[in-house]
Write a structure and sequence with these properties.
Blueprint: H1 2-5, H2 8-36, H3 39-49, E1 57-58, E2 64-66, E3 72-81, E4 88-99, E5 110-124, H4 134-137, E6 145-160, E7 163-174, E8 181-191, E9 196-208, E10 211-225, E11 228-241, E12 246-258, E13 263-274, E14 278-291, E15 295-309, E16 312-326, E17 329-342, E18 346-360, E19 368-381, E20 384-393, E21 396-405, E22 413-424, H5 426-434, E23 451-463, E24 466-477, E25 481-491, E26 494-503, E27 509-520, H6 521-529, E28 534-547, H7 551-556, E29 559-572, H8 576-582, E30 594-607, E31 610-619, E32 623-632, E33 637-646, E34 655-662, E35 666-670, H9 672-675, H10 682-700
Parallel strand pairs: 5-6, 22-23
Antiparallel strand pairs: 1-3, 2-3, 3-4, 4-5, 6-7, 7-8, 8-9, 9-10, 10-11, 11-12, 12-13, 13-14, 14-15, 15-16, 16-17, 17-18, 18-19, 19-20, 20-21, 21-22, 23-24, 24-25, 25-26, 26-27, 27-28, 28-29, 29-30, 30-31, 31-32, 32-33, 33-34, 34-35
């Protein structure tokens, strides 16, 4: 025996027969693999897997077969057609299927590893409302066990109602089952032009005869929007029922974070159901925060009983609460109501409820923007929407309507109608006064802003120290101009109509055109020019232009015309009768002196803030005054030359006066040079002065008969 073991021929035979047996086994295995994985059997197996879908399957004739580490076949360019067509529905660049060895001798094949590389498919709704690949995933699988499935470098196009989405670099990796569950991971990229997103998911998969469950599913997605980061994290339990084509997400918890204004959102959805023909959510609750050092946003959004069905979305109710806070103000907004969306008609709500409120922070309360509105809103698309509301603004009855249109090739237009019972600007006046520099509204400089046309009607409007009644106007606004055309209002006890416009220049330009009738002249002149020497009721025709950043610069560059026709008033600061009686011109230190009149007319031309007039006339029962001169509206300095006539004796010699200095406290003197013009001796000049005053005195105090 030992001699046999030590024999070289013996071992040579052993090696030879071992190699021969191995070769025969290899040939046998290869023959078995080739027979089991023949092209016909592979095609038959693949076609049977499609069942009654009426689809066909084809792949390249060249099939690669490998024995180790497991029997594996490689198919190239596998194509699954559309139903009853040869058009491609799914194209797979390469498929590798690795079988367990026992699969060669048993009826139930075991797939150890299935690798799909470079798949390209499109998922969309068909005319009957089903998904284009629904018939495939509803097929009952053959009696085959799958341990690992890997999908890599694939793409999926989702064609939904609101657009097409492309998932690239799609990957799926499932591990072998363990105690009835298997771990899996999934990933992909949304290469959207505006918001590119990469996402990854993982979970535990439980299979069942009627579907599968994912008791724990974790999904994260990260992207960028305008150089700002976005991260979304979702956790849920998923259930899939293929016969009902139903995917159900339970206890969905969502969190979104963005670097844009430090935005954070959390949301909870007890149950979200996706079916073939509808999507349903019973309740959606969310809260959000955002802000910076200068301002903070916070709020909540709640949705109840939402359904998407056959191109129509129904939301029984929603409620949005939002809060905006700065160092000075806190603003609250609430919007609630039902919503309906249809693919053909767009978004619509017939019962929207809106409330707003703004109040001070760390100061005495000063509530404003207090609104309570109910109405309707509809939006066919982002280029066409409109609304109509009634209710209260700042506790006063209000009505609002608006319409937006953006036609191709035209400038977008926003039209509105606003009616208010009463509007007080006192709560807003501090902010208006605090504005400096170019006061043209900043939001109108936005390139995307439409042209604005608003018809406004306000019964009563209060400014600090000013009241307007029955205001009607058409407001037109764009990047270049703001115009109040067909402006009508009750002003200073009378009526005014005309136009007001503002141009977006540097500095801002203004144009005021008004025709006022039956107004109180004194407050009108006070508000326009700071000039309050005349009172009475009358008419005013105003046409003024200017540009500037404050009242002073506006007065410096003021141009235009002013015409006054006043009745039953007084010239304050000057007592003509006293001058004629005694020749004594008193200083009006207490603003008690005045010259009553029954008519006063003036036409003034204003250039660079200087108002010039000639032949201005004042008539009273006792005097007739003709004046010419100028007033510097910016410095409030005037220079006037007056002739005072005897109203009952026009042929008598007039008394000439000069008025100079401050509008509020002028210097009034006799024009001695004009009164004694042509006279040489002091005696002649004295006599002329005495005769002039004697004539006026005799007229004012006639002798008794």
């Amino acid at each position: 025996m030992n001699r046999l073991l030590n024999s070289g021929k013996f071992w040579l035979k052993i090696v030879f027969f071992s190699l021969l047996a191995s070769f025969l086994m290899f040939v046998s295995l290869y023959a078995s693999v080739y027979h089991f994985l023949s092209a016909d059997r592979i095609h038959q197996f693949a076609q049977e897997s499609l069942g009654r879908t009426e689809r066909s399957i084809r792949f390249d004739k060249s099939i690669t077969r490998n024995l180790f580490p497991r029997p594996t076949i490689t198919l190239k360019n596998l194509i699954i057609s559309r139903p009853r067509s040869t058009d491609t529905a799914i194209h797979i660049r390469e498929i590798k299927i690795g079988l367990a060895w026992q699969s060669l001798w048993t009826d139930g094949p075991v797939i150890e590893k299935w690798v799909v590389s470079g798949a390209d498919a499109t998922l969309q709704r068909t005319q009957d409302g089903k998904w284009s690949l629904q018939d495939i995933w509803q097929q009952q699988s053959r009696n085959a066990n799958l341990n690992r499935l890997i999908i890599e470098n694939s793409s999926l196009r989702l064609r939904l109602i609101n657009g097409e989405y492309l998932i690239e670099q799609f990957g799926l990796n499932t591990k072998a089952p363990d105690s009835g569950t298997r771990e899996f991971s999934v990933s992909g990229n949304f290469n959207h032009s505006t918001i590119p997103v990469s996402w990854q998911g993982s979970g535990l998969l439980e299979t069942a005869p009627n579907g599968w469950k994912i008791p724990t599913f974790h999904l994260t997605g990260e992207g960028r929007l305008n150089d700002e980061t976005i991260k979304v994290v979702a956790d849920s339990a998923l259930t899939w029922l293929p016969k009902q084509s139903s995917l159900q997400a339970d206890n969905l918890a969502l969190r979104a974070d963005s670097s844009y204004h430090d935005f954070h959102l959390t949301a909870q959805v007890p149950r979200l159901t996706f079916n073939t023909d509808h999507v349903f959510v019973d309740t959606f609750n969310s809260a959000f925060t955002a802000g910076s050092e200068a301002e903070q946003w916070s709020g909540s959004l709640k949705l109840d009983k939402g359904k998407l069905l056959d191109g129509k979305a129904l939301l029984e109710s929603f409620k949005l609460n939002a809060n905006h806070r700065t160092a000075q103000w806190q603003t609250n907004l609430s919007v609630s109501g039902p919503l309906v969306w249809q693919k053909t008609d767009g978004l619509k709500s017939d019962a929207l409820h809106i409330t707003t409120l703004q109040d001070t922070v760390n100061r005495a309360p000063r509530p404003r923007y207090i609104s309570l509105l109910d109405g309707s809103f509809s939006m066919t698309d982002l280029r066409h929407w409109q609304g109509k509301f009634n209710g209260y603004f700042d506790r006063q009855p209000a009505a609002l309507s608006f319409k937006y249109s953006n036609e191709a090739g035209e400038v977008p237009l926003f039209e509105a109608g606003l009616a208010l019972q009463k509007l007080s600007l006192s709560p807003y006046w501090e902010d208006l006064e605090a504005q400096s520099g170019n006061i043209y509204p900043e939001f109108l400089n936005d390139d995307s802003l439409p042209n604005i046309e608003a018809q406004v009607k306000i019964n009563n409007m209060n400014f600090p120290g000013l009241k307007l009644d029955n205001i009607e106007t058409l407001i037109s606004a764009d990047r270049q101009h703001i115009a109040f055309t067909n402006f009508k209002a009750g002003l200073y006890g009378g009526q005014t109509e005309g136009g007001i416009s503002m141009a977006n220049t540097v500095p801002t330009s203004y144009h005021l055109q008004q025709n006022a009738r039956g107004v109180q002249i004194r407050p009108l002149l006070q508000d326009l020019f700071g000039f309050h020497s005349f009172s009475g009721t009358g008419d005013a025709v105003i046409d003024l232009t200017s540009k500037g950043q404050d009242r002073r610069s506006l007065l410096q560059l003021l141009d235009g015309t002013l015409s006054l026709n006043v009745s039953n008033g007084a010239w304050h600061g000057l007592d003509m009768n006293n001058i004629l009686q005694s020749g004594n011109i008193k200083k009006d230190t207490e603003n008690n002196l005045q010259t009553p009149f029954h008519h006063f007319s003036l036409h003034s031309v204003i250039e660079k803030g200087v108002s010039r007039h000639i032949n201005t006339e004042l008539l009273s029962d006792s005097v007739r005054v003709i004046s010419s001169g100028f007033t510097n509206l910016e410095t409030q300095e005037l220079s006037e030359e007056l002739l005072i006539y005897n109203a009952r004796n026009p042929d008598s010699r007039p008394v000439p006066l000069k008025i100079k200095g401050s509008v509020h406290n002028p210097s009034i003197t006799l024009d001695y040079a004009q009164l004694t013009d042509g006279l040489e001796t002091p005696q002649e000049k004295q006599k002329a002065l005495e005769d002039t005053f004697r004539e006026q005195w005799n007229w004012l105090m006639p002798k008794r008969k």
